[in-house]
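Hey, can you fold this one?
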Amino acid sequence: MTDVRERAVIERAVGNNPLRRYVPEFVSGSRILGGMLDSQYQENQELTASIDEVLDQFYIETATWGLDRWERMCGIATDPSKPLDQRRSVIKSKLRGIGTVTVDLVKNVAEAFANGQVDVQEDVAKYTITVTFVGKLGIPPNMEDITHALRDIIPAHLGIEYVYKFYPYYELAKSGKKYQDLTSLTYYKLVDKGVQ
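Sure. Predicted structure:
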């Protein structure tokens, strides 16, 4: 009977600490030695989490507190009031915007911000580049950043025109919903986001 009771005490002592499984039972069952193993395991877990967090800062997609370093490397003014995804978009577009300016480069930079598909057309006769946001409805929330990034790479003699996609009335009519069904939506939310 004491064997069963001792085993139960040891199993409870081992718990979710794998270090206790690698030592003899008299060590893992000891309050002092078992406590040392538990504190070492806890420190190891915290160290591993800290290492993972530091490694996350090396990648734009996962960086949080390390975004200021990315922004400094790219020559971007840091604005901590902006959401992380918008700050990441600015960094990605800056890194993508290196090289000769082509329609593909402009498209690549604009798509870094828009988080969706973008169509770019150049009109040589009118000296303009038209950027059409086709992947998502409405005006992107960080339009000012898009304009700055494109202005940085597009030659000064070319103008930039933006075309946005909105939710038109005929789409609402096709959906079968009526205005009475949409009382929770404002006009601007309906136009920018559509019927969800």
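The mean pLDDT is 82. Let me know if you want another pass with a different chain boundary.
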